[in-house]
């Protein structure tokens, strides 16, 4: 029986990029200035000499706030290993076959045992005929040499 290999199919493996938008809530803090003014209910005199508009001071208050610094980093999240394997399965093939049956004509000193004819050297006639055919077949092209 002969077997042939053929291409049963192919697999292409590639990759693509999927994108999505992520919304992440980040709590950020900031400072605000709070100025509270209160009416003095029991007005009291200022001590010392007071000149209106003199000695005006400016007070500077620094306010801080936080801001989000967004950065992206690529991470390996999955690895793919690709290979192939050979799987052997049994398949029943139905085909009509034949065999050549040797017709033996008994002539001369032939002893018949069972249903097979044997020559005096102990080999049956069919075995000797097969050997003769093998000797006549050219091993290079498989054809019978008809000398």
Automatic annotation (TrEMBL):
InterPro entries: DUF2382, Stress_Response_Assoc. Transmembrane segments: none annotated. Residues 2-104 form the DUF2382 domain. This is YsnF/AvaK domain-containing protein. Pfam families: DUF2382. It comes from Deinococcus multiflagellatus.
């Amino acid at each position: 029986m002969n077997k042939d290999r053929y291409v049963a199919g192919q697999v292409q493996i590639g990759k693509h990029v999927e994108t999505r938008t992520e919304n992440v809530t980040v709590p950020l803090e900031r400072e605000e200035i709070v100025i509270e003014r209160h009416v003095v209910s029991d007005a009291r005199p200022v001590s010392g000499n007071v000149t209106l508009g003199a000695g005006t001071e400016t007070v500077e208050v620094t306010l801080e706030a936080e801001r989000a610094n967004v950065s992206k980093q690529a991470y390996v999240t999955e690895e793919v290993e690709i290979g192939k394997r050979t799987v052997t399965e049994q398949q029943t093939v139905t085909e009509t076959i034949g065999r050549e049956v040797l017709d033996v004509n008994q002539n001369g000193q032939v002893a018949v045992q069972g249903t097979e004819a044997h020559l005096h050297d102990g080999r049956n006639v069919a075995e000797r005929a097969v050997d003769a055919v093998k000797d006549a077949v050219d091993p290079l092209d498989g054809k019978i040499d008809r000398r």
